[in-house]
Structure formats: structure tokens, C-alpha cells
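=== Structure Prediction Worksheet ===
Name of assembly: unnamed complex
Input type: mixed (protein and possibly other molecules)
Chain count: two
Listed entries:
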Amino acid sequence: KQEVTQIPAALSVPEGENLVLNCSFTDSAIYNLQWFRQDPGKGLTSLLLIQSSQREQTSGRLNASLDKSSGRSTLYIAASQPGDSATYLCAVHYGGSQGNLIFGKGTKLSVKP
Amino acid sequence: DAGVTQSPTHLIKTRGQQVTLRCSPKSGHDTVSWYQQALGQGPQFIFQYYEEEERQRGNFPDRFSGHQFPNYSSELNVNALLLGDSALYLCASSSYNGQQYFGPGTRLTVT
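=== Predicted Assembly ===
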């Protein structure tokens, strides 16, 4: 069964800290992996997409890594800000370009001023 | 480019009723996928439509059905609503490379 797990479920940090969110998946035959941000009651905003052939992607203060062999991905956020407070979801795309996404339950991040 | 749009934004229904949710894909996209997100959970795949046919389906009962129109827009229909159907329903569109772009969602409350 294809499952995605995110640890921790919740995280509270002071402003300015660097932090790492973890995602693990059971089936390594992925097409790609995506990290999303979700604000309360809102839709999903795509942050980073890593193709199965890639090791990492960077966008501004965000860096995502992918290790297919161990079934793990991390999202690194540098110099966290209160505006980063949201739920971060990891989604693994299986079944090629015609496949669907399997999501983790998310990590709820709170950055305190 | 308007991106993926969904309507309505919020909806309140009574148990046993039927509901229809609508989605317009991003310009140039021909594939629409639907997801259900219960409170505190990650989204779960319902089904995917391509060329007006259901191409894939997740583990959802037949009460959940859909349709795709020639302009690639899509509807999600849920019959005989249960309290447990209360959730945020997300639509995502994609094209040949499979990257999915999500709409803002429809919040369904069943009382």
C-alpha cells in the first residue's frame, strides 16, 4: 500500500530559526514529489516540485531534497518568519503523468514573533 | 490566466440530499482530478477525468460520481449525503506533464 507520513504533526518555533520538515513514503517508484502550503480553510499552494530524477529543488528560503532509495524527502525553511505559519503538505505522485497524488497528513507550523 | 476555479465556495446541505460541485481547469489543461480533505487530514484522491471519461478512481463509494464537459470543466456529484461527507473538496487540473494545480476548494457542511 502506498502511504505518505509526515513528522512532526505540529511544530512551534521562534522567528528566525531554521527548520526541517520530514516526509517519508513507502513505495519508491515515484513520478515526482511536491510540497504544498495550506492556510486555514484555503486551497493548496505549490511550493516545490522535485522530479524523480532530481535530488533537490530550491526556491528562495525553501529547499527540498529527495532520497528515493530511502523513501524520504525534507523541506528546509531558512530564517523562518511569522508569515510562514501554515500547514505544509507532502504529496507523492505515482503512476506517471496520468497518476494521482498521495498526501501526508501535514505538519502544522507556527512561527512565533 | 485565472487558474483553477471552483464553485460554490461554501455549501450547507442536509443528510440524504444531493450536491453538485463545479471546477474550471487552468487554461490549456485537459485533465481534472478531485480530492476530499477532511478536517486535520491530508487530501484523498476521489477520481480523475480525461477526455470526458473517468480515468482513475480512488477508494470512494458509488455515491460519488463526476462528469467532464467538452471544454474540460468538471462536476463532482455526491448523492445521499452523510455527515461524514463534510469536508473541503479540492479540484486540480493538469496537462501532459502531470503537474497538478489546485483550486481554492469548496467547503461542504452536511447537517
